[in-house]
Amino acid sequence: MAEICSSxxxxxxxxxxxxxxxxxxxxxxxxxxxxxxxILLAMHWFNIVGQWAVTTSVDFSLAQLIxxxxxxxxxxxxxxxYTASKYVVIAxxxxxxLLHAFINSLPIxxxxxxxQLAALWNLVGVFVLMILIPTVATETASPKFVFTYFNTDxxxxxxxxxxIFVLGLLMSQYTLTGYDxxxxxxxxxxSADINGPKGIISAIGISILVGWGxxxxxxFAVTDxxxxxxxxxxxxxxxxxxxxxxxxxxRYGSGAGGIICLGVVAVAIFFCGMSSIxxxxxxxxxxxxDGAMPLSSLWHKVNKQEVPINAVWLSAFIAFCMALTSLGSxxxxxxxxxxxxxxxxxxxxxxxxxxxxxxxxxxxxxxFNLGRYGVLIGWIAVLWVATISVLFSLPVSYPITDQxxxxxxxxxGGLLLLTVSSWxxxxxxxxxxxxxxxxx
Length: 440
What we know:
Elements: H1 2-7, H2 13-22, H3 27-39, E1 43-44, H4 45-73, H5 86-104, H6 108-136, H7 143-148, H8 161-175, H9 181-184, H10 192-219, H11 225-229, H12 239-252, H13 256-289, H14 296-299, H15 309-323, H16 325-328, H17 330-356, H18 374-391, H19 408-425
Helix pairs in contact: 2-3, 2-17, 3-4, 3-17, 3-19, 4-5, 4-13, 4-15, 4-17, 5-13, 5-15, 6-10, 6-13, 12-13, 13-15, 17-18, 17-19
C-alpha cells in the first residue's frame, strides 16, 4: 500500500488507487466497489463503511473503559461502585464523538499538533505501562505461561488450541488497520509521495514493536485468568482493567495507581478515535467530491481553513448511529468489529490485487517502491486477506445459537450484494470514477 501511495498520493486513497490500477474499462466499477467497502465497510463502500465501523468500535470501547474507570473509582463492583447502564455508556460514546468532531473541525495546524501529541503520548505511555505493571505486580507469570499457555477451559466451548490461536488473530488484525490513514491526508501533506508512504510504514512498524512490548508487559502480570474474566470481579469482567487494578491493590492496598494507568490507556484510545474521524472525513470528502455519495455536494464542501467540515460531522453522526446497535444486542455490535476488520482488509486488498494483475506491466512506481519484490509481496498480501476473511467468519462460541452465531458472512455478503446491485441498477449510468487531481 505504501508503494501504491507513493505513486498516487491523494485523499481518495484506496478507491482512487483502484480506479487508476484497474484501467479505464474497469475504473468506475473498481472505485465504486472499493470506495463503499472502505467508507461503509471496506472497496469505497467497503472502505468507508469499514472506517465508520472502526471509529464506532474505538470510541465505544473508550466509553466502556470510562465507565469501568468510574466503577473502580467508586469502589469497584464488589465495593458497591457505580455501574453505568447501557444508555449512560451510549451517552458517553456520544460525548466522545462530539469532542472528536470538534477537534477535527479545527484548522489543519491544530489537528497536526494534536497528532504529534498523540504520537508522543502513545510512545511514552506504552513504555511506562509495559515496565510499570509487571514491576508493581506482586506475582508474575513464567515465560512458559506467557508464550505457551492456551485458555482451553473457557466459557466459549472452544478447547482447540489451533482454533483459539486463529480467533486471537482478529485482535491483531483489528489493531493493525488504518494503513490508508496517511494516504487520506496526502493532499494536506508536503512531499506526499515520500512522506505518505513513510507514514504508513513507520506507523505500522512502531505499532508492532511497541505493541508487542506492551502485550508482553501486561501478560507477565496475568496469573489468574478465570478471575480476570469473571463478571463479578471489581472491574466487572473487564480483564485489562482488572490486571492494572489488582497489580496496585495487592502491593499498596489501593488500586488508585491502576486507575491512573487506565487513564493513560483511555487518553491513547481517545487520540486513536480522533485520528479515525480524520481519516473517515477525508475518505467521505474524496468520495463525495466524485459524486458517489448521497447529497455529495454537501459532504465535499470545505470551510475557510480547507477542512471538510460537513464530512467530519457526518462521520461522527454515523459512528454514533452504528453504536446504537449495542442497545439491542452486544452480539450485533461485537460482530461489527469483525465486519469492520474484514471489510477494511478487503478494501486494502483490492487496489493491491489490481496492481499485481491488471496494472502489473503498466504500474509506474513512485519514489518509494518495492522493486522486483512488489508483485510477490502483493500476492502474499492478497492471499492473506483471503485467508483471514474465511477465518473471521467462523463461529467464536459454541454451541451456536442466535446469540453466538457469527453474523459476519451475512453482513459482508449483504453489503457486497447492496454495493453491486446499486452499481448495476444505478451508479453505472452516472458514476465515472474519481476526479483526477494529480499528474500520473
